């Protein structure tokens, strides 16, 4: 098992390039199931979750080959419609194969996803939508079995809550349903738009992806397509905070600043200088940031996936800040680890009060989930002395070569094997 060793106190400077989006790549790769043939998906990061998705598709009979940053997915040879617990349990997004398998083959049997460290993420909205499209759904022995005796039929579906996975799932399932499907109270994240663009490249007729109302005119079939995945906005945001927390000066290439408006506004409130020009975002950190309050919200609000990283920045801010988590009920597990650096944080309900300290001290810490891992890396970059981060397999789920990219900016960071 690997761990990271960080010697903090270095001001980050230079250029870094953002990888393709994990959260866009996963549903796009799964959507390739809908076409009988080979699709080429470009700008796909090398991440543990991507490897898990490839194994899942291969377990169904598909062929998956990587060349550089591109995956060639041939869904023609798929010969089973069952996704077992052994694969689904390791990544919740795996459940998204249910809708595409059902739409293409009329049947699917997929294990219910396992638990999630950051809180409950039920799939009731997914199943409600599939039923509305005409699927017969049964739950037995930890598996969802879906049957469509005839072609799925378009329907008007109003989500009880804004759900990214549910929106993606029903976009895929409805792409070849007979008639029109309308998704109301749909999630608006940029990754939804990216999936919509890919499905349209395959021949789907989808309008409104990225808004709260999505209209889908079902087509008879989809065909394989080539597509380039959008840049990862959460990785980009993490590098922005890396620059800010070290008082650095970093140019981030390939990111779309408009995908991170809420974060940019809060960073600017904290005294961070941000200039966006020609696809490059320059971030200059202040000598010491100001305390700023945030509340996580569905897009376009402040992203829950940036909450832990922003908290790390607030740990060294001048003044206090209140960070409210409104998406997941258990997403403060990084707090106890940040306290090991000397951070002053108290939790009450879904809010954490952070009183900024003048300096953090390096410490041995343990990652608990993906974004918590990133917050510990950021704290380690700013801290005096040496930080040792264990269980970084969480980090590898969502950040491609992060230690190499940070080292390229001057960070003293290395990956080592635990003895």
TrEMBL record:
<feature type="domain" description="Enolpyruvate transferase">
    <location>
        <begin position="7"/>
        <end position="406"/>
    </location>
</feature>
<dbReference type="InterPro" id="IPR005750">
    <property type="entry name" value="UDP_GlcNAc_COvinyl_MurA"/>
</dbReference>
<feature type="binding site">
    <location>
        <begin position="121"/>
        <end position="125"/>
    </location>
    <ligand>
        <name>UDP-N-acetyl-alpha-D-glucosamine</name>
    </ligand>
</feature>
<dbReference type="GO" id="GO:0008760">
    <property type="term" value="F:UDP-N-acetylglucosamine 1-carboxyvinyltransferase activity"/>
</dbReference>
<feature type="active site" description="Proton donor">
    <location>
        <position position="116"/>
    </location>
</feature>
<dbReference type="InterPro" id="IPR001986">
    <property type="entry name" value="Enolpyruvate_Tfrase_dom"/>
</dbReference>
<comment type="pathway">
    <text>Cell wall biogenesis; peptidoglycan biosynthesis.</text>
</comment>
<feature type="binding site">
    <location>
        <position position="92"/>
    </location>
    <ligand>
        <name>UDP-N-acetyl-alpha-D-glucosamine</name>
    </ligand>
</feature>
<dbReference type="InterPro" id="IPR050068">
    <property type="entry name" value="MurA_subfamily"/>
</dbReference>
<protein>
    <recommendedName>
        <fullName>UDP-N-acetylglucosamine 1-carboxyvinyltransferase</fullName>
        <ecNumber>2.5.1.7</ecNumber>
    </recommendedName>
</protein>
<comment type="similarity">
    <text>Belongs to the EPSP synthase family. MurA subfamily.</text>
</comment>
<comment type="function">
    <text>Cell wall formation. Adds enolpyruvyl to UDP-N-acetylglucosamine.</text>
</comment>
<keyword id="KW-0131">Cell cycle</keyword>
<dbReference type="InterPro" id="IPR013792">
    <property type="entry name" value="RNA3'P_cycl/enolpyr_Trfase_a/b"/>
</dbReference>
<keyword id="KW-0963">Cytoplasm</keyword>
<feature type="binding site">
    <location>
        <position position="327"/>
    </location>
    <ligand>
        <name>UDP-N-acetyl-alpha-D-glucosamine</name>
    </ligand>
</feature>
<feature type="binding site">
    <location>
        <begin position="22"/>
        <end position="23"/>
    </location>
    <ligand>
        <name>phosphoenolpyruvate</name>
    </ligand>
</feature>
<keyword id="KW-0961">Cell wall biogenesis/degradation</keyword>
<keyword id="KW-0132">Cell division</keyword>
<keyword id="KW-0133">Cell shape</keyword>
<feature type="binding site">
    <location>
        <position position="305"/>
    </location>
    <ligand>
        <name>UDP-N-acetyl-alpha-D-glucosamine</name>
    </ligand>
</feature>
<keyword id="KW-0808">Transferase</keyword>
<dbReference type="InterPro" id="IPR036968">
    <property type="entry name" value="Enolpyruvate_Tfrase_sf"/>
</dbReference>
<dbReference type="Pfam" id="PF00275">
    <property type="entry name" value="EPSP_synthase"/>
</dbReference>
<keyword id="KW-0573">Peptidoglycan synthesis</keyword>
<keyword id="KW-0670">Pyruvate</keyword>
<feature type="modified residue" description="2-(S-cysteinyl)pyruvic acid O-phosphothioketal">
    <location>
        <position position="116"/>
    </location>
</feature>
């Amino acid at each position: 098992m690997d761990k990271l060793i960080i010697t903090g106190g270095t001001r980050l400077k230079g250029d870094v390039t953002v990888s393709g989006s994990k959260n866009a790549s996963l549903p796009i790769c799964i959507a390739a199931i809908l076409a009988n043939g080979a699709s080429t998906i470009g700008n796909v990061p090398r991440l543990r979750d991507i490897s898990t998705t490839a194994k899942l598709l291969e377990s169904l009979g598909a062929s998956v080959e990587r060349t550089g940053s591109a995956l060639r997915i041939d869904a023609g040879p798929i010969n089973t419609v069952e996704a077992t617990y052994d694969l689904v349990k390791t990544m919740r997004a795996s459940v998204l194969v249910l809708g595409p398998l059902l739409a293409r083959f009329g049947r699917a049997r997929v294990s219910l996803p396992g638990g999630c460290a950051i809180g409950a993420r039920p799939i009731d909205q997914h199943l409600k939508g599939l039923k509305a499209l005409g699927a017969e759904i049964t739950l037995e022995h930890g598996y969802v079995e879906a049957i469509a005796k005839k072609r799925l039929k378009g329907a008007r579906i109003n989500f009880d809550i804004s759900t990214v996975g549910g929106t993606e799932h029903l976009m895929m399932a409805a792409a070849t349903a007979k008639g029109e499907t309308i998704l109301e109270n749909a999630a608006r994240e940029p990754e939804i738009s990216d999936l919509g663009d890919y499905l349209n490249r395959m021949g789907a007729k989808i309008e409104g992806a990225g808004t709260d109302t999505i209209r889908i005119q079902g087509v008879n079939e989809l065909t394989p397509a080539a597509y380039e995945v959008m840049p990862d906005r959460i990785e980009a945001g993490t590098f922005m905070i890396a620059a800010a927390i070290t008082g650095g000066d970093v140019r981030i290439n390939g990111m779309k600043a408009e995908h991170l408006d809420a974060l940019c506004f809060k960073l600017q409130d904290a005294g961070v200088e941000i200039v966006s020009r020609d696809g490059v975002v320059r971030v200059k950190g202040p000598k010491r940031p100001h305390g700023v309050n945030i509340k996580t919200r569905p897009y376009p609000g402040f992203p829950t996936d940036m909450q832990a990283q922003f908290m790390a920045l607030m740990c060294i801010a001048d003044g206090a800040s209140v960070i409210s988590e409104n998406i997941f009920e258990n997403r403060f597990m990084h707090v106890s680890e940040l306290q090991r650096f000397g951070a002053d944080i108290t939790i009450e309900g879904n809010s954490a009060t952070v009183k900024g300290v003048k300096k953090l001290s390096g410490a041995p810490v343990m990652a608990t989930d993906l974004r918590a891992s990133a917050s510990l890396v950021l704290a380690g970059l700013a801290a005096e002395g040496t930080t040792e981060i264990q269980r970084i397999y969480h980090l590898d789920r969502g950040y491609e070569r992060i230690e190499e990219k940070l080292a390229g900016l001057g960070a003293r960071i290395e990956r080592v094997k635990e003895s």
